[in-house]
Design a protein that fits this description.
single chain, alpha/beta, Rossmann fold, Glutamyl-tRNA Synthetase, domain 3, Glutamyl-tRNA Synthetase, domain 2, 5 domains, 3-stranded parallel sheet, 19 helices, 44% helix, elongated, disordered C terminus
Length: 445
């Protein structure tokens, strides 16, 4: 079997979101699992919308996730290859110029629908004489260029959807070059996949019809048809469309909110499959367990809230050395960093939570004292010795408070925790007390 070659071909017109990531990750994992090649191919044939800042952002986001590529290609640097392919298609009678306006095409579609027919381009342009074409070109400017499909069934064994069969007669001849000479995705993708030796293409199920037309184009140009697989599209947790929220589900937005790369990758590598989501420690480990056969065609529900428990689990496994810079950035003195991280790492969801914990330790918390506990807390705090405290202080103090007040269990410990930390839950208080530098509750009680 020849080496596997896959590609991820984002358009640099915005930031990568979770939908893009799914496509990138699947292609990356297939290549890495087989020891093949993963190409990052920038689809920048639209000069108006493509921005270098987005190219840079795409690379930065992929690198943050650990999805490294073997080489980068830019479609804007391959326009001569697309022009040559277009000329070949013209020579073989598979490429023709059409001049209908958007309004004329819309009227044709409406008429076909009213007649109960599929809204497919009627190929009227094929009946134009050279004189008629010249006249239309003089009146309207250059036309668009369409690929002439062979109107037969197009079939392939899809890696996720199974056997697919599409009647080409039910599909419009695709426009490959716009009137302003801009090469569109379909032509550029076919030429690139053919010339770059791409063997496997995984993308969203919204591309199924594109795949049918591209198979004919690849065959017309003498290329080898890759293995295609179409993954399901993501929806919100209630099955709602994600399209309106993709802007806030960009990789950099999730990163800014504290999501850890391995939490995101571990979820996305299993979401929509028959396998349970399991937190992995590296992209290599994810690749080893990745199996495209496990994925189904049903829409896949994505809930961003699922990322945060996974992120918490990632952080729980981190040593101080892995997070030290961020801990020190929070203001924690270096000689207290180890103790601080040991205390808080099981009680944070995202790494930025260390800021709040250190503020509590260093500045004290706003005490939470129920009215019925006010006298008890005041009596207990009067028994609290002066610091500094160690790991034995909490046990000795609460034993003394219990003897003095008669309180025990939750009635003893909870009011004291809330008075000292302002929270009902958190780390073991025997570990918390040595880190508390200010106890406002003593003054507030």
């Amino acid at each position: 079997m020849s080496a596997i070659v896959t590609r991820f071909a984002p358009s640099p017109t915005g930031y990568i979101h979770v939908g893009n990531l799914r496509t990138a990750l699947f292609n990356f994992l297939i290549a890495r699992k087989s020891g093949g090649t993963f190409i990052l191919r920038i689809d920048d044939t639209d000069p108006e919308r493509s921005k270098q800042e987005y190219v840079d952002a795409i690379k930065e986001d992929l690198e943050w996730l650990g999805l490294t590529w073997d080489r980068v290609e830019r479609q804007s640097e391959r326009l001569d290859r697309y022009a040559e392919a277009a000329d070949r298609l013209r020579e073989m009678g598979r490429f023709y110029e059409a001049f209908e306006t958007p309004m004329e095409l819309d009227l044709k579609r409406k008429k076909q629908l009213n007649m109960g027919k599929p809204p497919v381009y009627d190929r009227a342009a094929l009946g134009l004489s050279d004189d008629e074409k010249a006249k239309l070109r003089a009146e309207r400017g250059d036309g668009v260029w369409r690929f002439k499909l062979d109107q037969q069934r197009i079939e392939w064994a899809d890696g996720i959807l199974g056997d697919i069969s599409i009647d080409a007669a039910s599909v419009s001849d695709p426009v490959l070059i716009r009137a302003d000479k801009q090469v569109l995705y379909t032509l550029a993708s076919v030429v690139d996949d053919t010339e770059m030796g791409v063997t496997h293409v995984v993308r969203g199920s919204d591309h199924v019809t594109n795949t049918a037309t591209q198979i004919q184009m690849i065959e017309a140009l003498g290329g080898t048809v890759p293995s295609f697989a179409h993954h399901s599209l993501l929806t919100g947790p209630q099955g709602e469309a994600l399209s309106k929220r993709l802007g806030v589900l960009s990789i950099r937005d999730l990163r800014a909110r504290g999501v850890e790369p391995m939490a995101l990758l571990s979820l996305m590598a299993r979401l929509g499959s028959s396998q349970p989501v399991e937190l992995r420690e590296s992209v290599e480990e994810i690749a080893e367990g990745f199996d495209l056969d496990q994925f189904g065609s049903a829409p896949t529900k994505f809930d961003e809230n699922d990322l945060f428990p996974l992120t918490a689990h990632v952080l729980q496994g981190r040593s101080l050395a892995q997070v030290k810079d961020r801990v020190l950035q929070a203001g924690v003195p270096e000689d207290q960093a180890e103790a601080f991280w040991t205390v808080v790492r099981d009680n944070i969801t995202v790494l930025s939570d260390v800021d709040g914990w250190w503020k509590m330790f260093s500045e004290g918390a706003e005490p939470v004292i129920e009215e019925e506990d006010r006298e008890f807390v005041a009596e207990a705090l009067a028994l609290l010795p002066e610091g500094p405290y160690d790991s034995e202080t909490w046990g000795k103090w609460t034993a003394e408070v219990k003897a003095a007040t008669g309180r025990k269990g939750r009635g003893l410990f909870m009011p004291l925790r809330k008075a000292l930390t302002g929270q009902a839950h958190g780390p073991d208080m025997s570990q918390v007390l040595p880190l508390l530098q200010v106890i406002k509750a003593k003054q507030g009680a």
